[in-house]
Specification:
Layout: H1 3-16, E1 27-36, E2 43-51, E3 57-62
Antiparallel strand pairs: 1-2, 2-3
Amino acid sequence: MHHTQVLEYLKSYSTHFGVDDVVELNTVVTRVHPLKSHNSKKVTWEVTTRKVDEKESQTSHFDAVVVCNGYGNSLFLN
């Protein structure tokens, strides 16, 4: 399968399932830090990001973080 077909599939998938509305492209994650609550064992995450073409960063808080960098993996498409 050619990489252009994979790109078109991913674009179609993200549009169909609304992923475009929740994913920030052209963004660098500069810091991910766990925050423990004093009242419970729950951990939240503080994530600092910066747009590629901007100098200022932004910090947000999340209940979960998933790292999907793909580095060092071999892609197999059937």
